[in-house]
Structures are given as C-alpha cells and as structure tokens.
Write a structure and sequence with these properties.
The complex is a heterotrimer.
Chain A: E1 15-23, E2 29-37, E3 42-46, H1 53-60, E4 68-75, E5 78-81, H2 87-97, E6 98-101, H3 105-108, H4 115-125, H5 131-144, H6 161-173, E7 179-183, H7 191-208, E8 211-216, H8 219-225, E9 228-233, E10 236-242, H9 243-248, H10 253-260
Parallel strand pairs in A: 3-8, 3-9, 6-7, 7-8
Antiparallel strand pairs in A: 1-2, 1-4, 4-5, 9-10
Chain B: E1 4-17, E2 23-36, E3 40-44, H1 51-58, E4 66-73, E5 76-79, H2 85-94, E6 96-99, H3 111-122, H4 126-139, H5 156-167, E7 174-178, H6 186-201, E8 205-209, H7 213-219, E9 222-225, E10 231-232
Parallel strand pairs in B: 3-8, 3-9, 6-7, 7-8
Antiparallel strand pairs in B: 1-2, 1-4, 4-5, 9-10
Helix pairs in contact in B: 3-4, 3-5
Chain C: H1 11-26, E1 32-33, H2 47-56, E2 62-67, H3 74-87, E3 90-91, E4 100-104, E5 117-121, H4 135-143, H5 148-161, E6 172-174, E7 178-180, H6 190-193, E8 199-204, E9 209-213, E10 219-221, E11 248-252, E12 259-263, H7 266-275
Parallel strand pairs in C: 2-3, 2-4, 4-5, 5-8
Antiparallel strand pairs in C: 1-9, 6-7, 6-10, 8-9, 11-12
The chains are: A alpha/beta, B alpha/beta, C alpha/beta.
Chain lengths: 265, 233, 277
C-alpha cells in the first residue's frame, strides 16, 4: 500500500440509498432513508430494538425487497440499481462480492460441516478446484481469526459462541468482499468474549480495507468499530455524523437521551 | 515562517440539553484566532472557559454553531465547519492531530500496535512504522517489556506517554494538545516538551492547553485569552 | 385375459409422463416433477422406473430388467413378469438384443447403442438434499447454479479420509449445466454415461421426479484438480469369465470366509463364458 499523501476529494460512494422505504407496519421498518457508504469506512447504524436498523441493513444488502426508493451499488462493472437486478444477481452479490455476518452464527454457518468446509465454500463457489490450495487458505484463515488450525476438521456445532462467530467472519472474508454487512455481530456473546471478537473485526477490517455496515444497539460496540454513525428511531434517521461527534456532542433530543443512557464503566 | 495554517473566524458554540429542560449554555462566543506555521498558541483561562471545547470544535468532535475554521494546506484551504464526514475523516488522518488527556484503551491491543496504527493507516510499511514507534516509546521511557501488553492496566502517566508517542509519530500541519504533560514527572515532561519543540521546528502549528507553567513558558509563542480574545506574549 | 390397459397406465397418464420426459430431455439433468400414479408395488420398489418404462414401451419393444446388474434377482424377475403380463411384449436377458433396459443401480457392461433406452430407478433424485433439506431452496440453487456446496461434500471426504470416498451415487454435471444424482450406481459406471449413444431416463416414484440425459451428452464427474475422479479397481479378475475390466462383486462362499469375485453384470459374464467354450 502506497503512503497516501493527498486527500481524495471526489470519491464515489460504494452504496447510495435514496429515499429508501420498506415498511411492514406503521413506523415499523425504515422510511425515506438517504445514506452513502464509502470504501474502507465503517458505518454504524445504531438505535433501540424496533428502530428499523436490521430492516435497513437487509434492504441495503439486497436480501429484502423495498417499497420505494433506490439503492445503487458501484461495482467493478459499473453502477447497479440493486432492486432492479434479477434475484440471481442479488444472490450472487451477497454470496460472492459481499459478506453478511448474522447475529446468531448458527444462521450463518453449516453446523454439520467441518470448520474448513465452512471457510472453503465461497472459494469453491468461485470456481477454485484445487483441494490443496483450498485447504491451505482455510488453515490460514483459521489462524487469522484466532481459531486453532488443528480444529479445521471439527464441526462448529461443537464450538463455543465466540468461536462460531469468528468462524462466520472467516467464512465471509475469505472471498475478499468489498462490503461486509454485520447484524449485531457480538449480540449473543458473553461480554468477555465480545472484546476479542470486536478486536478481531477491527483488525481485519483495517487490513482488508473492507467497507462495513454495522447494525448494533450497543453504543460501546459502535464506538470501537464505527467511523460514522447513523442514529435511527421508529424507522427514521434521527441524526448522522462522525462517531465521536455523535457520542460527545449529540444534537437531537433522542440522540442525547440514547447517549446519556450509556453506563460508563 | 509567517504562513497561516489555521484561521478561526467568529466561532461560537452553544450546548443545548434537550432532556434537561432545554437548558442552553454558550461556551464559545465569537472566537477569532490565527495560527502560523511553526507557531504555538496556548489557550489561557480558568477551567470551564471552553478551552477543551475549542480544541474539540477544531477537531470536529463538537459541531460549532456559527463561524468558520479555515485550514490552509499549501495551495488548498478547507473550511472544517462545512466539510462532509468523509473528508473530515481524511483530514484527521493526514492534517490534524488531537492529543487528549485520555488514552482510549481498547482491550487486548498491545501498546506498540497502538502507537504504530496511525502510520499503518497512512500506508507505511510495518518495519518503518515499528522503528519509528519504538524510537518514541524509548524516548518516553516506556520499557520494552511493556510494548506487547495492552495498556489497560498501565498507570495514568504511562497511558499518557503512549498517547503522546502515538500522536507524534507522523508530522502534521496542525496539532491540538490538551494538557499533554498533565500526569508526567519532570523527566518525561522534558521529553514531551522536546517533542513539541521539534514539531514546531518542522513547521507544525500548535494550539495547546497547559496548566503547568514550566511547559507553557518553554513552548508558547503567544497566549490567547478565550474570554477577552486578546493575545499575550 | 388382459384386464389392464397396455403397460398398466391409462393413456392420459402416459401422455402426462411423456410430456415430463420431453421436458426432461430438453433440459438435460433438470428434475421435472410429474404426477406419479398408484402402482401395484410400494415406494422403494422401482415405481418411478416402472412408470417411465410404461410410458415409453410399445408393442414391438423388447425389455431387459436388471437389479444390481443381475437379471435373475427377485425384483428383476418380478418387474419383468409384470411387464410381460400387462404388455405381452418380448423380454430378454441379452443386452444387445433389447430396446429398453430398466435398471436398479447399475449400467450394463456391454456398451449400449443408439436407439436403446436405459431407464434408471432413482430413490433420491436431489443431489443437494444432503446439505439442504428444503425443496424450495434446492430448486433455487439449481436455477442459479449455486453449486459450491457440492464440492463441499467432496472436500469433506478428502479431509476425513484422504480421498473422495463417495463410491456410488457420485455427483455429475450434465451438459455443463445441472448437477445430477446419477442414482446409486457405483462410480465405476459414471464414465459410461458420458456421451452414451443410448437415451438415459431417470424416474423417482416416491419423490415424483423425472430427469434425462439425451444421447451423446457430456456427463462429467465432479472432482478436484489434485484429486481427480477415478474408478474402482480390483486386483482380482472374475472367477467365472476372467474379465479384468468389469465391476466385480465380492461373494463369501462358505463359513471359512473363502471369497470369490464375480462380475456383477450376470449377462455380460454368461456371454463371455459361453463365448470361450
């Protein structure tokens, strides 16, 4: 990586949402969302349960249909309007070019297949057909997510929650995605385990220069991982800004309430 | 060396606490200030006057209510109050350093890594970054046996020195220092003052808050009184 | 006196099944749903294969039925007799004299010719079922060619056993498009499917699916570059006919554990024995 000397002023957003709306009840879902995601940044979407953040995440990832508005993705082959694409194209995007980390790793893993098989799946979907190379990559990735490589043939149903989550991360990152979507990645984990997973995510995101959209109700997680924040409530965006600005100088009444409710440990 | 690096025009900041009866209090009112290349301005005034607030506004941690903050960089000028977040993020990485009083400690990250991170973010090679990082850790008297430990359990003074090491690794046109020598003993204070003087010599413009008079006398070119808007030498 | 319609099924049912077969032949390897009928034998006894055979068989056809390669096992005999009864057509054991062969779990050793039809009995038609239990999902995976999971299974074999251990029902890719379960034939038989001059039809009665491989279609077994597909081999040859190239069954002949290797294809073996006399 070259030392970047100058500022890049005219970067195009990777994802641009324009008046994105998906509602399945009054104030349930997301409405009139405008946002942009740039390469290499971590965008946090925070809010309480029911704010619509998970719905927004799924709409941005193309795995949920929308009522109105647009989501445009700047891919390597040009700009794509996400919800105009055929389902096969959207599925291919989420499985090849993007990653999605589920809150419950059980939803994002094949529990009955070995850890190595879980990591290798994307490689094989992309046409990699050399067992030796596939296995070596799987071993490398086990180490990168701090799983013992000797357990490559073990099944994740026998792993702890933290280990399963780290396996899910490896499985998604192995295909070098340009965007990683994360839905409460440490939500179900014990506090002591969360720190380890968060640190790993931070490190890998930096190393791989992946753009990340991170949904969390935990402001502490957002503080550690996100560069920018979007605060949601009742399906709408209340406020956006740099993470430290939102947390130290919140402007909107709801944001002030949210931030002041954090227990300072 | 009279080139202006930073120009603050009519900067005001008011806090409104919506959930506490809409209390509003004005902390900064019509601040005007210019800092040149290689110059160090120390903010003057008792606590609560808004010195930290000003630094935070400059770093965009706080949003200003009125006024402009112009950053001059060679041919370019940027109004920091008008920039979008994306560009602000880059400016923070390349142009402005903010040394706060507290090291934000993330569990598990070793202090060598913490010090190296800004260089790595800019694209420096690992060995280059490591060399510079160890140089600074040595001069700030952080023993080598601590380099691979996370600073979570270190003393306030040690954390402060790691913070400083991190922010002084790369030259930047503008440095904002909030009590950098606060928890340090004499020897380390001298080292930090030396680092600040070196930064000045290589052209950084500095705005700092120093309660301790010794440091202030050695680094300050001018003092700025937030309340009156006057300069002192 | 024959109280059944020719080939047991009514003509409308034959038409429906032929439409399914036509669609299957048009999309090699693609599983076509069909409305299977109540047959006079339970699921698991070849009802799919029988319905396919019943839909294509005509008065002038000659039928061969084999089960694990043998014409003389109970099931082969029963099915052959069934068709004799409801069709009155000629039956034979000779592979090269027949027009239709219905088979359970083997392809005859004798190469098949253009104009012949091979009907396979299939228990589970869906090759992805082992990893994805939902029918809705597997259909989508086939439609979108999301076949990464298939190589997962082969990967697991190599990880666990050092080699691909799947010995039968070895997955293939048909016409470069659909992944297909070739039915529980030994992988030894997979190469025979590739560009076979005969028409290959597959019927799964319980699952109600039909699929097909038209003549001269590419059928390639899945593998890895560094673990290429290979077929079973024996050190022994057939104890009866001496063949070194056919699929051998290992038979334990007495309580002392004496074993013999014999051709699984009984007709092939008998023909060779006859020819050498």
């Amino acid at each position: 990586m070259m030392v970047q000397k100058d500022l890049i002023l005219d970067q195009q957003p990777l994802i641009k949402a324009d008046q994105l709306t998906r509602l399945y009840g009054i104030n349930k879902g997301c409405e009139q969302i405008d946002l942009e995601l740039y390469a290499g940044e971590v965008l946090g979407i925070v809010g309480e349960s029911g704010s619509g953040k998970s719905t927004l995440l799924r709409c941005l990832a193309g795995i949920e249909s929308i009522d109105s508005g647009t989501v445009d993705y700047e891919s390597t082959i040009g700009q794509l309007r996400l919800h105009d694409l055929a389902e096969s194209e959207r599925r291919r995007l989420i499985r090849q070019e993007w990653g999605f980390i589920q809150q419950n790793p059980r939803d994002g893993l094949h529990l009955e297949m070995s850890a190595g098989a879980n990591i290798s799946e994307r490689l094989m979907s992309q046409g990699e057909r050399h067992y030796g190379r596939i296995r070596q990559q799987a071993l490398d990735w086990m180490q990168r997510v701090e799983l013992d490589p000797a357990r490559i043939d073990d099944k994740p149903k026998n792993f702890s929650g933290g280990m399963q989550q780290r396996l899910q991360i490896a499985r998604n990152l192995v295909s070098g995605p340009s965007i990683l979507f994360m839905d409460e990645p440490t939500g179900g984990l014990d506090v002591s385990v969360q720190a380890r997973v968060l640190d790993l995510i931070r490190k890998l995101v930096r190393e791989l220069n992946v753009a990340v959209v991170l949904v969390t109700h935990d402001i502490g997680v957002a503080r550690i991982l996100a560069d920018r924040l979007i605060v949601m409530r009742n399906s709408r965006i209340i406020e956006t800004g740099l993470t430290d600005q939102i947390l130290e100088d919140p402007q909107a009444p709801y944001t002030q309430l949210l931030v002041s409710s954090i227990l300072r440990v | 060396m009279n080139q202006t690096i930073l120009e603050i025009q009519g900067l005001s900041k008011t806090f409104t606490l919506h959930n506490q009866g809409q209390i509003s209090y004005e902390v900064l009112n019509n601040i005007n200030l210019r800092v040149s290349k290689g110059e160090c301005i120390v903010l003057h005034g008792p606590s609560g006057m808004g010195k930290s607030t000003l630094l935070r506004c400059l770093y965009a941690s706080y949003l200003s209510n009125a006024g402009h903050i112009y950053l001059y960089d060679g041919e370019q000028s940027y109004d920091l109050t008008q920039l979008n977040e994306r560009i602000l993020m880059q400016i923070r990485r390349h142009k402005i350093v903010y040394v706060s009083q507290f090291l934000r400690v993330i569990p598990r990250v070793p202090c060598l890594q913490i010090v190296m991170q800004p260089m790595l973010d800019l694209g420096y090679e690992i060995d280059q970054a490591e060399q510079r990082a160890t140089e600074l850790l040595c001069s700030l008297n952080i023993p080598e046996r601590l380099w691979n430990l996370s600073p979570t359990t270190f003393s306030g003074g040690e954390q402060q020195r790691i913070n400083i090491a991190r922010e002084f690794t790369v030259h930047r046109p503008l440095m904002l220092l909030d009590e950098p020598t606060a928890s340090l003993d004499t020897k380390n204070r001298e080292t930090v003052i030396e680092l600040i003087l070196q930064a000045k010599a290589s052209g950084s413009a500095i705005i700092g808050i120093f309660h301790d008079e010794v440091s202030r006398k050695q680094v300050a070119d001018r003092l700025f009184d937030l309340k009156t808007g006057d300069f002192y030498d | 006196m024959n109280e059944y319609n020719f080939a047991y099924l009514d003509e409308h049912t034959k038409r429906v099944i032929r439409r399914s077969l036509l669609k299957a032949v048009s999309i090699p390897g693609y599983q076509v749903p069909f409305p299977g009928r109540e047959m006079p034998m339970p699921y698991g006894w070849g009802t799919g294969g029988i319905q396919v055979t019943a839909s294509v068989i005509g008065k002038d056809d000659c039928l061969k039925v084999i089960d694990q390669g043998a014409d003389d096992t109970t099931n082969a005999v029963s099915i052959r007799n069934f068709f004799k009864r409801v069709c009155g057509i000629r039956t034979t054991e000779k592979t090269d004299e027949t027009s239709i062969i219905q088979t359970r779990h083997r392809i005859p050793e004798t190469a098949l010719k253009a104009g012949q039809i091979l009907v396979y009995q299939v228990p589970i038609p869906e090759p992805l079922r082992f990893i994805e239990p939902r029918e809705t999902e597997t259909r989508t995976m086939h439609a979108l060619q999301e076949y990464g999971v298939m190589h997962l299974k082969l990967y697991e074999d190599i990880a666990q056993f050092g080699h691909i251990s799947t010995a039968y029902a070895y997955p293939v890719i048909v016409n470069g498009r659909y992944i297909m379960d070739p039915s529980p034939i030994p992988k030894f038989d997979n190469p025979k499917m590739h560009r076979m001059p005969a028409l290959q039809l597959f019927g799964a009665g319980r699952e109600k699916r039909i699929y097909a491989v038209p003549p001269y279609t590419d059928v390639v077994s899945l593998d890895f570059e560094d673990h290429p597909f290979d077929i079973q081999q024996w050190d022994e040859s057939c104890a009866l006919c001496g063949s070194e190239v056919s699929f051998l069954d290992e038979i334990i002949t007495d309580n002392d554990g004496i074993r013999l290797h014999l051709c699984s294809d009984s007709e092939y073996c008998a023909t060779r024995v006859g020819a050498s006399q």
